[in-house]
TrEMBL record:
It comes from Bradyrhizobium canariense. Keywords: Signal. InterPro entries: DUF3551. This is DUF3551 domain-containing protein. Residues 1-24 form the signal peptide.
Amino acid sequence: MRRFVQVFMILASFVALVSTVQPAAAGKYCLQGSQWGFPGNCQFHSRRQCMATASGTNSTCGINPRYAHARK
């Protein structure tokens, strides 16, 4: 019985932890290139940030499709 209570408490703690985790917000711009796939690395909130990361690589920056086609 004691083992059952321990397992139950561990599972309850895990469920509580997982239910409070929020996904990272996607940025407005995506770093796009052959190594990134589609839509690319969408962590950039400004075009300047994206262009700085793309500098010196064979990548470009574009608007995140999820942002561009979001319902308002």
